[in-house]
Amino acid sequence: MSNPYGASAQTYRIQSVMTASAAQRVAMLYDRAITWLQEAKAAIARGDVKARHDANNHAGEIIVHLQATLDLDKGGEIAANLSRLYRFMLNRMIQIDLRNDANAADEVIGLLRPLSEAWHALDAQIVAEAGASGRASGQQGYGQNATGGAYSRVSATA
């Protein structure tokens, strides 16, 4: 039996991504990677090797995407540090599959959470500033390059 809400939920999720600011999209990617890693941990607990591998793989795809979209020229030291952090995360995620290591998943989640929180805070700041500047000038909306140049292009898939 199919879920009658499945198509609507998928449409809503696509619409949420399409209308999100750049900062929101980055935060969404971090949030989704965390969710996948939590699913990998749950699969470890129930002994489901395939589900663990699939969830870990999805999280890894997100981290690889985030790393691939870093703009090292514009992002400077911050982008370089993020790149190193992503490589570290990916190495720890290998341990999730090789050793069925829930602690490695916790470690990566612990690294992703503050990044997600920072991007959510950045988005809130952008919204507040856009609202204040819109009231002052009679316009509304986001400024260009809301990410400060760390990312060249961002999408939220998976």
UniProtKB/TrEMBL annotation:
User: Mind naming one GO cellular-component term on file for this protein?
Assistant: cytosol
Which keywords, in A-to-Z order, does the entry hold?
Answer: Bacterial flagellum biogenesis, Cell projection, Chaperone, Cilium, Cytoplasm, Flagellum
Tell me where on the tree of life, at the top rank, the source sits.
Bacteria
Could you tell me where this protein is found in the cell?
Cytoplasm, Cytosol
User: Which terms under GO biological process does the entry name?
Assistant: bacterial-type flagellum assembly; bacterial-type flagellum-dependent cell motility
Q: Which family does it belong to?
A: Belongs to the FliS family.
Q: What is this protein called?
A: Flagellar protein FliS
Tell me the organism. Tistrella mobilis (strain KA081020-065)
